[in-house]
Amino acid sequence: MISKVRYELYLVLTKGDTYEGRVVVDFHLSDKNLGDLYLDYHGQAIAQLVVNNVKIKKVNIQFSKHKVVIPRYNLKSNSLNRVSLKFTNKYVTNSAGFHRYVDPQDDEVYLYTHLEPFFCNRWFPCFDQPSIRAPLQLNVVTPDEKWQVVGNDVISQSIPVGSAIGKSLCKQGGI
Q1: How far apart are CA 122 and CA 120, in angstroms?
Q2: Which end of the chain has fewer CB atoms < 10 Å from its terminal CB, N or C?
Protein backbone atom coordinates (compact mmCIF):
# COMPACT_ATOMS: atom_id res chain seq x y z
CA MET A 1 0.00 0.00 0.00
CA ILE A 2 2.83 2.45 0.89
CA SER A 3 6.21 2.56 -0.80
CA LYS A 4 9.07 4.93 -1.69
CA VAL A 5 8.91 6.61 1.73
CA ARG A 6 11.31 9.45 2.47
CA TYR A 7 11.56 11.75 5.52
CA GLU A 8 12.97 15.22 5.94
CA LEU A 9 13.09 16.16 9.60
CA TYR A 10 13.74 19.64 11.03
CA LEU A 11 14.40 19.77 14.78
CA VAL A 12 14.79 22.78 17.04
CA LEU A 13 16.41 21.53 20.22
CA THR A 14 16.20 23.21 23.61
CA LYS A 15 17.98 22.86 26.91
CA GLY A 16 14.56 22.49 28.56
CA ASP A 17 12.14 19.57 28.63
CA THR A 18 10.60 19.97 25.15
CA TYR A 19 11.60 20.36 21.51
CA GLU A 20 9.83 21.33 18.30
CA GLY A 21 10.00 19.95 14.84
CA ARG A 22 8.60 19.62 11.40
CA VAL A 23 8.66 16.45 9.36
CA VAL A 24 7.97 16.16 5.65
CA VAL A 25 6.98 12.65 4.58
CA ASP A 26 6.98 11.72 0.90
CA PHE A 27 5.47 8.37 -0.09
CA HIS A 28 3.79 6.56 -2.93
CA LEU A 29 0.28 5.30 -2.18
CA SER A 30 -1.11 2.45 -4.26
CA ASP A 31 -4.80 2.90 -3.37
CA LYS A 32 -6.34 5.53 -1.10
CA ASN A 33 -9.56 3.50 -0.72
CA LEU A 34 -7.97 0.83 1.48
CA GLY A 35 -8.97 2.51 4.75
CA ASP A 36 -7.59 5.12 7.07
CA LEU A 37 -3.96 6.06 6.67
CA TYR A 38 -2.10 7.36 9.69
CA LEU A 39 1.31 8.23 11.04
CA ASP A 40 2.40 6.84 14.38
CA TYR A 41 3.23 9.55 16.91
CA HIS A 42 3.55 9.18 20.66
CA GLY A 43 4.16 12.86 21.29
CA GLN A 44 2.69 15.97 22.82
CA ALA A 45 0.96 17.91 20.04
CA ILE A 46 0.47 18.44 16.33
CA ALA A 47 0.49 22.16 15.53
CA GLN A 48 -0.04 21.89 11.78
CA LEU A 49 -0.87 19.24 9.16
CA VAL A 50 -0.52 19.79 5.42
CA VAL A 51 -1.43 17.04 2.94
CA ASN A 52 -0.46 17.53 -0.71
CA ASN A 53 -0.27 21.31 -0.25
CA VAL A 54 -3.67 21.50 1.48
CA LYS A 55 -3.50 22.83 5.04
CA ILE A 56 -5.88 20.90 7.30
CA LYS A 57 -7.77 23.15 9.70
CA LYS A 58 -6.52 22.70 13.25
CA VAL A 59 -10.00 21.66 14.45
CA ASN A 60 -10.01 18.87 11.83
CA ILE A 61 -6.66 17.36 12.81
CA GLN A 62 -7.30 13.91 14.27
CA PHE A 63 -4.53 13.06 16.73
CA SER A 64 -5.25 10.54 19.46
CA LYS A 65 -4.11 7.17 20.72
CA HIS A 66 -0.65 7.83 19.27
CA LYS A 67 -1.91 8.18 15.70
CA VAL A 68 -2.26 11.14 13.36
CA VAL A 69 -4.93 10.47 10.73
CA ILE A 70 -4.08 11.60 7.21
CA PRO A 71 -7.38 12.56 5.54
CA ARG A 72 -8.05 10.18 2.63
CA TYR A 73 -9.75 12.85 0.56
CA ASN A 74 -6.43 14.74 0.29
CA LEU A 75 -4.41 11.71 -0.84
CA LYS A 76 -3.64 10.69 -4.41
CA SER A 77 -3.77 7.04 -5.52
CA ASN A 78 -0.91 5.59 -7.56
CA SER A 79 1.05 8.76 -7.05
CA LEU A 80 3.56 10.50 -4.84
CA ASN A 81 2.02 12.13 -1.75
CA ARG A 82 3.55 14.70 0.60
CA VAL A 83 2.52 15.16 4.22
CA SER A 84 4.02 17.85 6.43
CA LEU A 85 3.50 18.09 10.19
CA LYS A 86 4.67 20.59 12.79
CA PHE A 87 4.93 18.98 16.20
CA THR A 88 6.10 19.44 19.76
CA ASN A 89 7.30 16.77 22.11
CA LYS A 90 8.99 16.15 25.43
CA TYR A 91 12.37 14.56 25.87
CA VAL A 92 12.32 11.24 27.72
CA THR A 93 14.60 9.87 30.42
CA ASN A 94 14.07 6.15 29.77
CA SER A 95 15.68 5.86 26.28
CA ALA A 96 12.28 5.10 24.67
CA GLY A 97 12.28 8.08 22.30
CA PHE A 98 14.45 11.21 22.28
CA HIS A 99 16.42 10.82 25.51
CA ARG A 100 17.65 13.82 27.55
CA TYR A 101 20.36 13.45 30.17
CA VAL A 102 22.03 16.09 32.32
CA ASP A 103 25.45 14.87 33.38
CA PRO A 104 26.03 15.63 37.08
CA GLN A 105 29.80 15.84 36.49
CA ASP A 106 29.79 18.65 33.93
CA ASP A 107 26.14 19.83 34.16
CA GLU A 108 25.88 19.57 30.37
CA VAL A 109 22.81 18.33 28.49
CA TYR A 110 23.15 15.25 26.27
CA LEU A 111 20.46 14.06 23.86
CA TYR A 112 20.24 10.82 21.89
CA THR A 113 17.90 8.36 20.28
CA HIS A 114 18.25 4.72 19.28
CA LEU A 115 15.40 4.73 16.74
CA GLU A 116 14.59 1.17 17.63
CA PRO A 117 11.41 -0.31 16.11
CA PHE A 118 8.37 1.32 17.57
CA PHE A 119 10.34 3.90 19.51
CA CYS A 120 10.88 6.11 16.46
CA ASN A 121 7.31 7.43 16.77
CA ARG A 122 8.25 8.73 20.20
CA TRP A 123 10.74 11.02 18.47
CA PHE A 124 8.72 12.29 15.47
CA PRO A 125 5.58 11.39 13.45
CA CYS A 126 6.34 8.54 11.04
CA PHE A 127 5.24 5.21 9.62
CA ASP A 128 6.79 3.27 12.50
CA GLN A 129 6.54 -0.23 11.10
CA PRO A 130 9.53 -2.55 10.53
CA SER A 131 8.40 -3.28 6.97
CA ILE A 132 8.49 0.42 6.02
CA ARG A 133 12.08 1.63 5.95
CA ALA A 134 13.07 4.99 4.58
CA PRO A 135 15.94 7.44 4.26
CA LEU A 136 15.95 10.37 6.67
CA GLN A 137 17.42 13.80 6.02
CA LEU A 138 18.00 15.42 9.39
CA ASN A 139 18.26 19.19 9.94
CA VAL A 140 19.06 20.21 13.52
CA VAL A 141 19.16 23.63 15.14
CA THR A 142 20.85 23.65 18.56
CA PRO A 143 20.28 26.07 21.45
CA ASP A 144 23.99 26.64 22.03
CA GLU A 145 26.97 26.90 19.68
CA LYS A 146 28.89 24.47 21.94
CA TRP A 147 26.44 21.66 21.13
CA GLN A 148 27.63 19.10 18.61
CA VAL A 149 25.33 17.01 16.44
CA VAL A 150 26.53 13.46 15.79
CA GLY A 151 24.86 10.92 13.52
CA ASN A 152 25.51 7.86 11.43
CA ASP A 153 25.92 9.98 8.30
CA VAL A 154 28.05 12.97 7.39
CA ILE A 155 27.15 16.09 9.38
CA SER A 156 27.52 19.15 7.17
CA GLN A 157 27.30 21.71 9.97
CA SER A 158 25.93 22.38 13.42
CA ILE A 159 23.97 25.61 13.74
CA PRO A 160 22.95 27.44 16.93
CA VAL A 161 19.33 28.61 17.01
CA GLY A 162 20.24 32.24 17.77
CA SER A 163 22.43 32.65 14.70
CA ALA A 164 21.14 34.18 11.47
CA ILE A 165 21.54 30.81 9.72
CA GLY A 166 19.71 29.04 12.57
CA LYS A 167 16.80 31.47 12.35
CA SER A 168 16.73 31.07 8.58
CA LEU A 169 16.72 27.26 8.84
CA CYS A 170 13.83 27.41 11.32
CA LYS A 171 11.91 29.63 8.89
CA GLN A 172 12.82 27.41 5.91
CA GLY A 173 11.76 24.32 7.84
CA GLY A 174 8.50 26.02 8.75
CA ILE A 175 9.15 25.86 12.49
Answers
A1: 5
A2: N
